[in-house]
Amino acid sequence: MSDRSDAPTSVIRLADYRPPAWTVERVDLAFDLGIDRTEVAATLELVRQADEPMRLNGEGLELLELSVDGRRLGEGEYILANGVLEIAVDGDRCTLATRVAIRPAENTALEGLYLSGSRDKGFLLTQCEAEGFRHITFFPDRPDVLSRYTVTLRADRARFPVLLAGGNPDGAGELGDGRHWARFVDPHPKPSYLFAVVAGRLERISHDYTTADGRAVALHIWAEADVIDRCGYAMDSLIRSMQWDERTYGRNYDLDVFHVVATHDFNMGAMENKGLNIFNAKYLLADPDSSTDDEYRHVEAVVAHEYFHNWSGNRVTCRDWFQLSLKEGLTVFREQSFSADMNSAPLKRIEDVALLRRAQFPEDAGPLSHPVRPSQYSEINNFYTATVYEKGSELVRMLAGHLGRDGFRKGMDLYFARHDGQAATIEDFLKALGDANDADLSPYLAWYGQAGTPRLTAEGRFDAAQRRYRLTLRQRTPATAGQPAKQAVPIPVRLSLFDHSGAALPLRLEGEDRAGDTERTVVLDGAEHAFVFEDIDAAPVPSLLRGFSAPVILECDYLPGELAILLRHDPDGFNRWEAGQQLAGLAYDDCRDGNVDGSALRAWTRALADLFAGGGVDDALLAELLTPPGEIELVERQAERDPERIRIARQAMLRALARRIGAEPLRERYEQLRAATSAALDAPSQAQRQLKRRLLDLLALVDPAGAAERALAQYGQAPGMTDRLAALATVATYASPSAEEPIAHFRRRYDGNALALDKWFAMQAMLPGAEALARVQALEGDPAFTLKNPNRVQSLLGSFARANPTGFHRADGAAYRWLADRLVAIDALNPQVAARIATAFNGWKRLEPVRREAAHAVVAGLAARTDLSRDLTDILARVAL
Ligand code: ARG
Ligand code: ZN
After folding, report:
1. Nearest CA, atom 1, ligand 1
2. What is the per-residue pLDDT across 514-527, written as a single tens digit (0 to 9) for each?
3. Relative to the CA of 380, which ligand 1 atom is closest?
4. Mean pLDDT across the stretch 713-725?
5. Which residues surround ligand 1 with Cβ inside 6 Å?
6. Which residues contact 67 (CB under 8 A, 6 or more apart)?
7. Active site residues
8. Which end of the chain is more exposed for a tag (fewer CB within 10 A), N or C?
């Protein structure tokens, strides 16, 4: 990954998969840890599986010693080139010993062994997924080589008082010279990407847990001293996750200790290393003064996600990286179900679908599109995507829906039993789920191999004479990059039919002798199918894809009034929101076309104003209903994509909504909520904060001066971060001069609090308009800004490029040129981070001509360079096409 692209980029293909020629039964690692230089001695017991030379991966390693079966090899006895060590060995087994030196402090890519924090205070840690282990020692670094690990760590006790590795502790002691050692044995065979060590000055909080099957487990969460008091919520979340997995899937933890470590220097969210999870501090630390409600929920979800991997990922792992969604899609699904159980299920579904539309749909529609199971890659790190994760989870959700609750549980039991200790494939997963239920799930494989979001069209025809309603469903998936022809996929459509008073009708399909429930699921498994419902007295309003039963784009010619019926009456929170989103889309079209008296805009604002006034909708759902699709989703409704015009039209529809509800009722409700303000974390309190924030924004559109004053007051009195940050964002968006002082105040108040400062950078980076670039450039000069920290780079550059459409897509292209320049600088430090930010150029082709030209020049210029990392080169090459 740190190799530059002048080395030939090779494409890895799923079709070329071959099992490993040599596997490793046991591996014994000994680390002599040092910040500048660490020595790693490895002893591998290898077993031949095919008649081929032994090939081990190794990159950036200084080879000090190499021996086979106790005999040191001289120069001509091995080949070391392009990151591969090749040795011809006779016999079917051998013991290979290597000693290498590596340089953690110089590792700015944060892959392999690296330093988090400063040289004098920081600690050492590892990140191996996907291919980081080869930066630590020579090894067949692929997920289908499962080995038993023994790890010994040796280090200076004063500098590295805490020594951790995955597995159970197996002794520790003194070495003399102020040095000490600790050993760990992991009884469970695992692939190298799950290996981890941590060493340094860390504090911990602990909890004694007993699993449902009676194992005593010591849970430890580790962090640096200044933040250790913010780990309590993560510990609570971990305990809840463990109990939930026992209850829901019968899965127990399987070691005597479980460590979780927080670091501020991490490329991704978190990592499920066996027995030693490592977290981006952003997803582990939480306290009311510096974390928002959203962040609390993210901590709960990510802690659960990594814990759930212990079964879906670790005990059963992936055969190769093409199967990444086998563990990620499944684990996201498990995490989403957990969060739905812990919080409100409909709100969780709203949040997940909104994320899918914001992050995955654009990916699926642009040059970076790829199937949930890609068929080729040149840099696997670029495939930790919304498609593999979020769409992957939607596919598991469809399978779970198909089998039903008990059937899915039976299927999962069989999957875990059959493949425990193995590296499996997506076929294995579908087969196990199917076998346990006597079902054939293989049609769903098409979903895994095909990129692009299917369009589902629905056409209803009511026949009064026959008292019948005929619903014709059709599907079509648009061509995507490199995949012109598409096949039909099974699309489960959960549906209800409503009459015009908002009552759900009992459903009887043609050929059935009696009506069943008011909700059922039909499956469209070909290009087109018509479903005929009997005993229907008047043209019904169909409520389709309930619960978002398939990750598709629904095209149905609803009249605004029909959507308004669903928005007013659908008893299911998710579908109510969904009807509101669809109606809001039509209302947006009205505003875009300057049709301020459009029927959709009227229907949308009227229905919401009634719901607002009438009560009956809880605060959390109301806040969601009052939030139309964001600017990024709305680009789909714009032929000529001009972010400026999208923003103007969206603001116009929100202003129309605020006017319809009325400034006075908005103010009144806001004041009520303000009076009830607390920092409590219970769901109603969170919902109140969420709604308050929506109301403040709506007020700003009809009464900017009053809203700014109110927001300033809210900032001053806020009992916690949610209210404080929301108020700051509102003032900064609608009354920027008045924001200077609170922005400076926030900066001083949270000096030294990295996670709070990240939000401070991000909030400002997302402020819309022409000044955005200059603002971001000024923020680069803040002493707390650095290109070396991924969170900081994401918060300033990532937020600007990916979440500030009007700021980033300036017509003069200045922001594109500026970002290109920064990408080159970031890439020299950390290719993974550079590649992720570069995906901001994903949609350039569909911009209006002036912006498109400007973006094209920049993308083409970058893509032509030969001095960039494989990660960045891969993204640019695909985006530029
Ligand atoms: N497996 C981790 C998770 O839980 C993500 C690791 C991603 N690492 C990477 N280098 N892309 O989602
Ligand atoms: Zn994961």
Report:
1. 271
2. 988 999 999 999 99
3. 11
4. 97
5. 129-130, 267-268, 270-272, 305-306, 309, 328, 381, 384
6. 73, 96, 97, 98
7. 306
8. C
